[in-house]
Amino acid sequence: MKTYDWIIIGAGITGAALAYELTKIGFSVLLLEQDQIPQNATCYSYGGISFWSGKTAITKQLCEEGITHHRILSQELNADTQFRELDLLMTIPVDMNPEIMVKSYQEVLIPPRLITIQEACELEPLLNPEVISGALTVKHGHVHPKKITQAYIQAMVNLGGEIQFGQFLELVTTSTKKCTGVKTNTTTFNSDNVVICTGGISRKLLKSMGIAAKIYFSHAEIIETPPTDIQLHTLVSPANLQRYELETESTQIDELWDNPNNEIVPPILDAGVVQFLDGSLRLGQISRTLTNPQGEINSAASEKWLRESIKQILPSLENIPGTWHHCLVAFTQDKLPLIGAISEFSGLHIFSGFNSPFIFVPPLAVRFAKFISGHEDEIIKQMSPQRWHY
Asked: How many helices (H) and strands (E) does the chain have?
């Protein structure tokens, strides 16, 4: 039976990009995905590329590398990722001082510009002026999540990589704690190395092997619409995103995640909308920290909450036909992904936990592929899963 150099578990944007970069370097690569039509976080994401948002030296550098990468990626992959740059409009609630909000963004790579209510409505005519005190705006990248992921996969296959579909059952390991492959519901695949790119279920997968990892997940909910004649001119998002606060608060006590029936902090809703080139919309986003990946959610109540919140900002979208969707979104305590070897088993690695995957995954996939080929990389080292043990 063939032994691959690398098996990648999970064909979202993280697994697809890493599989391509490893294949491009010359490794034999197998990409494993359980669903012929994936239902992962990539499928239901906004596809936003926040290249302006880096705050630290590392994230600023990766933002610059990421946007440079996206500008040539369609050409490199020989497929249209639908990359574009558009205006991001971040709404400031009517009860919040715009000057205070703009100060909170002064440390980022490209600070957004504060605009008045009138300027915001000129930029986005569908906006409700009565619920905002102003807005921030900055250029923002955007791709179609499914198209960029499929482009990576097809480019990998064109270079000789393989993709197989099947339900993951377990990792194959030896008595000396060496990971030697992956067992699915159809067969067993052998490899020298395995990389976990499974996003929100990474914690559960690792725990099944007795590995504790500081990776977490939220339940994200959005409404996806068919193509519509309604035309948005911007990508709309709240300036005071609550999602990052929810993630920070929910990771204070790691042990709480070991109880499968917890809701660690109350759910939040960041009312935002993006429109794709075909005219379809994604309205969102509700985030919940349920510790059970299969936790039950009242979809009718969620959709009502989502629509009522969107109605406040963009009234014309209140009753637009659409379908509620739910997925898991991975994150970490310090907002940096987990990248590198997992010390408990040789040959086992992780590439997951990206809080802004569409800006950070492409450059970090390149860096990781070079790193495991023998190139030194201080950024990859700082994202080691063992970083909290140092």
From this structure: 10, 17
Are 153 and 11 a contacting pair, CB within 8 Å? yes
What count of Cα atoms within 13 Å lies in the side-chain half-sphere of residue 389? 8
* b/e code 317-340 from CB counts within 10 Å (16+ = b): beebebebbbbbbbbbbbbbbbbb
Tokens representing residue 74 in the block: 């369609």
d(CA 149, CA 185) in angstroms, rounded, equals 24
Q: Tell me which residue has tokens 């098996």.
A: 7
Tens digit of each residue's pLDDT (9 = 90 or more) over 275-309: 999 999 999 999 999 999 999 999 999 999 999 99
Q: What is the rounded end-to-end Cα distance, in angstroms, of the chain?
A: 40
Separation of alpha carbons 372 and 367, rounded Å: 9
- Position 389 scores a pLDDT of 64
Q: For 162-192, what is each residue's pLDDT tens digit?
A: 999 998 889 999 999 999 999 999 999 999 9
Which of 335, 330, 341 shows the shortest CA–CA distance to 384? 341
> Among all chains, which residue has been given the structure tokens 């490794």?
27
390 band by pLDDT with thresholds 50, 70 and 90:
very low
Structure token pair of residue 23: 């294949």
Which two tokens mark 314?
């963009």
The CA-based angle 294-300-303, given to 5 degrees, is 95
Please return the burial class of 1, using the count of CB atoms within 10 Å of its CB with bins 0-12, 13-18 and 19+: exposed
Distance CA 81, CA 338 (A): 26
